[in-house]
């Protein structure tokens, strides 16, 4: 049972956007009854059929790592969080459709995760500012999910959806908008479920079937105790 | 004519303070949130503006700026407005926002917030009974009644914060208390954290697989509906679901462990940063200040004990005493009146600025620690309430630090309050707060190093 292959996907976003509810919905197909504060990181596992319906169908475990906290945390908390960012195969960015700041903070979240990433692309560790170019050559598949769709009034829905479409384009990612308290948004066969399945397939493909020589999965990159520049020299 | 000029000066300064409060709110407190209810921001800035105006009036009193009658008028007006805000507006809005968060009562928000406000007023009134703060000749709705109660709450707050601050300040500044943390300790703890996460993951994998096989075999694990469903679930419980509950319990325990490890690791990182900081110049400077403050803290605790034990309230303020000492014992002659004015201005100014700054920093830290996107409005309003009460009672207490001729305005405006009671109450709470902070910090300090010793 535990001998299936696995991939690791991070779930990032501001406090209170609904990451824990989302992860619970994805993994247990049930709505989370009593959401509470996430301290540190909570993990859940989803069983996914890669290339479902084809002869090459194979089952994988997808680990969803739901990292709690906010972008404005103390640097000690950020350093501690960084231990979860190692050997990541995919990132789900979650934002609250009713709160614009949470969408703006996604840039900082993705910078924080990608700068600690295991794929050494020689990216300079900046002070966390958003750099557009780093997403162009980014190898890790991203997915943008907007929550609390039910709380958006019908009249404002159109402009909110346009805004999120631009956001997803910035990240070069697909986007899904839903309400975590209602399982019908991810019902089998709906377009959201298809997008989700496609995303997971892409993550698995990048991890196991890619011929890219840069991929050294599972190699921990510790830039935190100094010596970061020295380590980067090895991979050119 | 001069009254108009004075009023315009006052109003300009109030607008400036309002703007400062607005900016502080936007850039510091609500950095990560979206302001959807502008009422909250307005209330916060207004409270801040009127509180600062009171301090400004004290400074004007010492320096002798503006006409004395217009100063008095503005004092009275300011005090009335700020009491109105603290007793009527802010509590009502706190109740309103609390009720808005509860989905059930959404329809009758106004009604329930009025009820909450009335409850608050009842307890607020009852607060005055056990304390000997008023002479019975005042009417029910006079300023003195309100101020005395606000004063009690505020003085308690001031004393608690001072007590804790006086102890915590040397503890954080001095590097003597820093535990020795090495990279090896941090790495070891991180390894444990990741191992715990791996254990959680393997258990969750088993659970997910079990659920999948159960689902495929058609054993739905939804809640049994109806009478027969319940009977069935009692007699035939699938072995899979029993397994699941067992594993779930193990997972809960492991998750709790992972949370603890995460917090400890964050703590170690913070300590490591502080160690690095203490090696810089700024760090060394603060370390030296720490020694200085610890002596000051011990002296204050000592003085508070003496005040309580010997039942004495200082009659003269530090400025006059200092001048007396220099004139009498050191034989230095100088113009007492001129110097007392300037020195008390500087002293009072420093006290005001440090207390405002200290309070704003503490409020910000507190806000970051406990707020979430749902409760941010309520918490900001609570902070505005605390800030208002804190500033009003600071005015009350600052009276002690001023020479006699400047005290009169405060005594006149605030009416016949038993100022001595407030100082005694301050000493008691300060002592209690300082001693319990020492105990608390001692316990916390003792407990931590045992866990992180590298064998």
Q: What features would you describe in this structure?
A:
The complex is a heterodimer of chains A (236) and B (455). Chain A has 236 residues and is α/β, with parallel strands linked by helices. Chain A has a single domain, classed as Rossmann fold (3-Layer(aba) Sandwich), CATH 3.40.50.300. In chain A, 33% of the residues lie in helices and 19% in strands. A 6-stranded mixed sheet of chain A has the order 2-3-1-4-5-6, sandwiched between helices. The longest helix of chain A is centred in the C-terminal third of the chain and has 19 residues. Chain B is mostly helical and 455 residues long. Chain B has a domain of 307 residues. Chain B has 14 helices and no strands. In chain B, helix 5 packs parallel to helix 14 and helix 9 packs across helix 14. The longest helix of chain B has 40 residues. The model of chain B has no long low-confidence stretch (mean pLDDT 77). Chains A and B meet through strand 2, helix 2 and helix 3 of A and helix 6 and helix 8 of B. Chain A: Keywords: GTP-binding, Nucleotide-binding. Chain A: This is Rab-like protein 3. Chain A: GO terms for molecular function: GTP binding.
């Amino acid at each position: 049972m535990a001998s299936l292959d696995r991939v690791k996907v991070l779930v990032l976003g501001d406090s209170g956007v609904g990451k824990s509810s989302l992860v619970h919905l994805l993994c247990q197909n049930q709505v989370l009854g009593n959401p509470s504060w996430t301290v540190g990181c909570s993990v859940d596992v989803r069983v996914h059929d890669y290339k479902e319906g084809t002869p090459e169908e194979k089952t994988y475990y997808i680990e969803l790592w739901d990292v709690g906290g906010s972008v404005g945390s103390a640097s000690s908390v950020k350093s501690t969080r960084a231990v979860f960012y190692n050997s990541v195969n995919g990132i789900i960015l979650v934002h609250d459709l009713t709160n614009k700041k949470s969408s703006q903070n996604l840039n900082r979240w993705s910078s924080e995760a990608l700068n600690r990433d295991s794929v050494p692309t020689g990216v300079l560790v900046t002070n966390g500012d958003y750099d557009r170019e780093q997403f162009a050559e980014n190898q890790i598949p991203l997915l943008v999910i907007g929550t609390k769709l039910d709380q958006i009034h019908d009249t404002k829905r159109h402009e909110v959806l346009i805004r999120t479409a631009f956001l997803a384009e910035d990240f070069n990612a697909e986007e899904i908008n839903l309400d975590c308290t209602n399982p019908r948004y991810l019902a089998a066969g709906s377009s959201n479920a298809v997008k989700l399945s496609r995303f997971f397939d892409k993550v698995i493909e990048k991890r196991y079937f890619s011929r890219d020589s840069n991929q050294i999965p599972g190699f921990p990159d510790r830039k935190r105790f100094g010596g970061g520049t020295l380590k980067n020299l090895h991979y050119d | 004519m001069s009254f108009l000029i004075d009023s315009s000066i006052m109003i300009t300064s109030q607008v400036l303070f309002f703007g400062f409060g607005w900016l502080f709110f936007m850039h510091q407190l609500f950095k990560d949130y979206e302001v959807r209810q502008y009422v909250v921001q307005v209330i916060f800035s207004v409270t801040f503006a009127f509180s600062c105006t009171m301090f400004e009036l004290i400074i004007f009193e010492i320096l002798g700026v503006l006409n004395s009658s217009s100063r008095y008028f503005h004092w009275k007006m300011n005090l009335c407005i700020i009491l109105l805000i603290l007793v009527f507006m802010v509590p009502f809005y706190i109740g309103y926002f609390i009720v808005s968060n509860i989905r059930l009562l959404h329809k009758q928000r106004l009604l329930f917030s009025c009820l909450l406000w009335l409850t608050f007023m009842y307890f607020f009134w009852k607060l005055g009974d056990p304390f000997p703060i008023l002479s019975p000749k005042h009417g029910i709705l006079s300023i003195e009644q309100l101020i005395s109660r606000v004063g009690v709450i505020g003085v308690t707050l001031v004393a608690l914060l001072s007590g804790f601050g006086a102890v915590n300040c040397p503890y954080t500044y001095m590097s003597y208390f820093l535990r020795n943390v090495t990279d090896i300790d941090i790495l070891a703890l991180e390894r444990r954290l990741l191992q715990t996460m791996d254990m959680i993951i393997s258990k969750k994998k088993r659970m997910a697989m079990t659920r999948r096989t159960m689902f495929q075999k058609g054993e739905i694990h939804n809640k049994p509906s109806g009478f027969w469903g319940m009977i069935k679930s009692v007699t035939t419980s699938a072995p899979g679901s029993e397994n699941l509950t067992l594993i779930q319990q193990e997972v809960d325990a492991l998750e709790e462990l992972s949370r603890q490890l995460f917090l400890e690791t964050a703590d170690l990182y913070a300590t490591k940063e502080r160690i690095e900081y203490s090696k810089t110049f700024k760090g060394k400077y603060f370390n030296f200040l720490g020694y200085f403050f610890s002596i000051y803290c011990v002296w204050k605790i000592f003085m508070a004990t003496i005040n309580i034990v010997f039942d004495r309230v200082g009659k003269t303020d530090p400025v006059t005493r200092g001048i007396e000492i220099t004139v009498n014992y050191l034989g230095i002659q100088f113009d007492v009146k001129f110097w007392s004015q300037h020195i008390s201005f500087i002293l009072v100014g420093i006290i005001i600025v440090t207390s405002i700054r200290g309070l704003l920093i503490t409020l910000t830290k507190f806000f970051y620690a406990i707020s979430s996107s749902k409760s941010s409005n309520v918490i900001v309003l609570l902070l505005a309430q605390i800030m208002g009460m804190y500033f009003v009672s600071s005015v009350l207490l600052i009276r002690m630090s001023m020479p006699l001729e400047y005290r009169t305005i405060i005594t006149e405006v605030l009416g016949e309050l038993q100022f001595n009671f407030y100082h005694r109450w301050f000493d008691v709470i300060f002592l209690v707060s300082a001693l319990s902070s020492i105990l608390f910090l001692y316990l916390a300090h003792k407990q931590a190093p045992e866990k992180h010793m590298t064998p």
